[in-house]
Please model this.
Amino acid sequence: MRNEEARRPFVIIEFHHVSFSNPAISRGHSGRPFPKQEFDRLKEELALPFAGVTAFLQAPGEGLWRQGGECSNDEIVIFEVMTEEIDLQPWRTRCADLERRFRQDEVIIRYSSMGVM
Model:
C-alpha cells in the first residue's frame, strides 16, 4: 500500500443492507425453474428505487428446512440492495407480492444497518 493511501482518512457511510431469497424452481406446481424473465423483472423493479441491485442467479444456493417430521430443500436465488433509509411498509407490500408471484407460504426479507468505507 502506498503511503498516501494509508494516510487517507476513511469515510464511513451508514447504509441498510436488505436481502431476501426466492426459490429458483417452482415446487408443488410445475417443478420447473421459474423463467429467467421473472428474475430479470424483479431486478429491474429493485434497481429503480435503489439505484442498484445484486442478484445471485447463476449458482443457486441450497435451502434446507424441517417442517414437522419432514425435511425439504430448495434451490434459491438471492437479491440484495443497499439503501440509506429504510421504509418498512413498501417492503411488507413487496413481501406479499413475492409470496404471490413465486407461490410461497412465506418470504423472509432481512435488513441490517452497516457502515461502508
